[in-house]
Amino acid sequence: MTSASARVSATASSPAVASARVPVLLVHGIDDDARTLAPLADGLARAGFQDVRIVELKPNNGDAPIPVLAGQVAEAAASLRARTGSARVDVVAFSMGALVSRYYLQRLEGRNHVRRFVSISGPHAGTLTGWLRANPGARDMRPGSELLRGLAADEAPFGEVQVFTLWTPLDLMIIPARSSQLAGARERTFPVILHPLMLRDGRVLRSVEEALTVERPEDFKPLPVVLPPGGP
Questions:
Q1: From residue 4, how far is each of 35, 80, 104, 133 by CA, in Å?
Q2: How many domains are contained in the chain?
Q3: Which Gene Ontology molecular function entries are recorded, alphabetically (predicted)?
Q4: Which of 27, 114, 150, 161 has the fewest Cβ atoms within 10 Å of its own Cβ atom?
């Protein structure tokens, strides 16, 4: 198997609310593993999500191309749907995992099986840090790569999937940071100073929960811009 499962118990919601939650698939980034997503998984458990699966991508260092890793996400999503009996799942993915999950949605029929996709600091338009490695996964993440051009060319890339993007303009891993944007997505930005801290910032974690539970995507509003002391 190429993924790790985590079933979490609801502690913060009533049984009726918890039973209405859609199963959630969590996908980590490059050089990460299931432990990286523990704060997110724990937060969803407290919010009443009973069925959460963490995909452990193998290998996790970019030695496999994005399409190969996307196949692992497809396998995990199918397994989660079969185990829970749910027609659709929600996908929350971080960094490289967000691009892997996007490939699953666009190329492996994931858009037929996913209700909502939450991308956290994903390199959707590529990142210059992809040039720091020569392996296939890193090459796929370079700006202008064949894979990225192909995904961007899709006229209706996500079908009926509701898409949300959470990112920081201060990102030093996704360069330029605006590469984390996706056309048509509901979007929030956060003044988080380090890429890995996006998975530990309370505002981000609360926004993930909101994205998965808000009744209508259009009700997911951008957060107010907080200016630094002495700003205009």
A1: 10, 11, 18, 26
A2: 1
A3: hydrolase activity
A4: 150
